[in-house]
TrEMBL record:
Compartmental location: Endoplasmic reticulum; Golgi apparatus
Assigned GO CC terms: endoplasmic reticulum membrane; Golgi apparatus
Signal peptide (from-to): 1-33
E.C. code: 2.4.1.221
Entry keyword annotation includes Glycoprotein: yes
Principal subcellular localisation of the protein: endoplasmic reticulum
Top-level lineage group: Eukaryota
Pfam families, sorted: O-FucT
Protein name (database record): GDP-fucose protein O-fucosyltransferase 2
Keywords, comma-separated and alphabetical: Carbohydrate metabolism, Disulfide bond, Endoplasmic reticulum, Fucose metabolism, Glycoprotein, Glycosyltransferase, Golgi apparatus, Signal, Transferase
GO molecular function: peptide-O-fucosyltransferase activity
This protein's pathway: Protein modification; protein glycosylation
Length: 443
């Protein structure tokens, strides 16, 4: 029924206003004819009511500080998801998944890497078993266009916080940093909206926040009636309850997209003699039905290594090994666990990779062709690497790397023995080499 899915074309009108042109006369709202002021976002309720989809629900959008990488962003998703759960106790909200792109680590040249929907990396039905989610394009279609009614930029408190007096609080405050949004000639806010240049904000203000994600809930429920609210710099929110059941439910719902898992599985079987049946790594497509007793999964007959380089090395961190040091550890682990294959995931520059290959000629890497890279993108390649690392008999990662942390969680979900998971390289001169913490899943 085409009449019930309004298409809106926007053209500049008199007095500099934007006039929406509905191509479908049947959906022409009464208010318009009566001269009501156009308010972006208002179409959604009427149109969707007819389509029976949105029922006047409200939309939560968010973004993260641009320099933050893929694996930290996955952690921020967990925090925002717990805010959504809190909101859902009072009202109907849906989380709009922030399109991926423009990430610092995604440096493959000549590949279009903005406006990437979540479905390219994650399984949407799995996410939706945890909280209601939609892609950004769906938000635009159902809310009536590329408008976000209220943008809150989250920031800390200008005065910092006094030691010993931690309290959770949130207040509207003047913006501390210069706003990255500017007003266009129609008084709309323009800025970075995941590469959607036509998207505009109607109102932007700053909130100083100190506390966990759900502290924003009262503000969203009581202080604003905007139907679409974006929280920018959402990494300023802390976890409601790190490591709790709600945390793990969300984490478990972040199932990798099937097409990426298939690529990883093919690679395992082809180069690492690793299959789910032989490795006893049973996977259930429905994460809510997956609960594996730790240690019952065996993992494939290989050692997996995540060797984070680049800025971890340039910063001369003492908890990061030299290549020689890393290879020494790798050889010793292979010997201890009687493994003759080793899979390496690394962001090392080409020169370092060549050096590593000389020191460890038997190592196996997932090296995408240009076509594969274009298809899966840097994010997909990272996921394939993580999927292969997650299935190894033994894993060793890099100290305080979010890439390694996400592998820990994946192995925990798969039910591998914690002794084979929570390992990291030590710096060549590191005195106390504390190993990663074991976070148990709360089911
Ligand atoms: C929200 O509204 C309450 C009550 O009017 C007010 O006290 C509070 O400062 C407001 N909070 C924010 C963040 O605007
Ligand atoms: C592959 O693994 C199986 C056990 O799952 C083993 O019997 C077989 O010898 C292995 N093949 C190679 C080539 O290592």
């Amino acid at each position: 029924m085409a009449a019930q899915s309004p298409r809106i074309r926007v053209r500049p009108g008199p007095r500099g206003l934007l006039l929406p042109l509905l191509l479908s006369a049947a959906a022409w709202p009464l208010g318009w004819a009566q001269g009501d002021e156009f308010r972006p976002g208002q179409w959604g309720a009427a149109a969707e009511g007819a389509a029976g989809a949105a029922r006047g629900r409200r939309y939560l959008l968010y973004d993260v500080n641009p320099p933050e990488g893929f694996n930290l962003r996955r952690d921020v998703y967990i925090r925002v998801a717990s805010l959504v759960k809190t909101l859902l106790r009072s009202e109907e909200w849906v989380l709009v998944l922030p399109p991926w792109g423009r990430l610092y680590h995604w440096q493959s040249p000549d590949i279009h890497q903005v406006r990437i929907p979540w479905a390219e990396f994650f399984d949407l039905p799995s996410l939706a078993r945890n909280i209601p989610v939609i892609e950004y394009e769906q938000f635009m279609a159902e809310s009536g266009g590329p408008f976000i009614e209220q943008v809150y930029v989250l920031q800390s408190y200008a005065e910092g916080w006094k030691e010993g007096t931690w309290e959770e609080k949130i207040d509207q405050r003047p913006c501390i940093d210069q706003l990255l949004y500017s007003r266009d000639k129609h008084e709309y806010y323009r800025g970075w909206f995941w590469g959607y240049e036509e998207t505009r904000g109607l109102s932007v203000s700053c909130l100083s926040v100190q506390g966990s994600a759900s502290i924003v809930a009262p503000v969203l429920l009581k202080n604003t009636s905007a139907r679409s609210v974006m929280l920018d710099r959402a990494e300023n929110l802390l976890h409601d309850h790190y490591g709790g059941k709600e945390y793990w439910d969300t984490r478990r719902s972040m199932v990798f997209a099937k097409h990426l898992r298939v690529v990883g599985d093919d690679f395992r079987s082809k180069y690492l003699n690793s299959t789910d049946a032989a490795d006893k790594t049973i996977y259930h497509e429905d994460w809510t039905k997956m609960k594996v007793k730790l240690g019952t999964s065996l993992g494939g007959p290989y050692l997996a290594v995540h060797l984070r380089r680049k800025d971890f090395v340039w910063g001369h961190r003492e908890d990061v090994p030299s290549l020689q040091g890393a290879v020494k550890t790798i050889r010793s682990l292979m010997e201890t666990h009687k493994l003759d294959r080793v899979f390496v995931a690394t962001d090392a520059v080409r020169k370092e990779c060549e050096e590593l290959k000389k020191l460890l000629p038997e190592m196996v890497r997932f090296e995408p062709t240009w076509e594969e890279l274009e298809l899966y993108k840097d994010g997909g390649i990272a996921i394939i690497d993580q999927w292969i690392c997650a299935h190894a008999r033994v894993f060793i990662g890099t100290s305080v790397s979010t890439f390694s942390f996400r592998i820990h969680e994946e192995r925990e979900i798969l039910g591998l023995d914690p002794k084979t998971t929570y390992n990291r390289f030590c710096g060549d001169q590191e005195q106390q080499c504390e190993q990663p913490t074991h976070w148990k899943i709360a089911y």
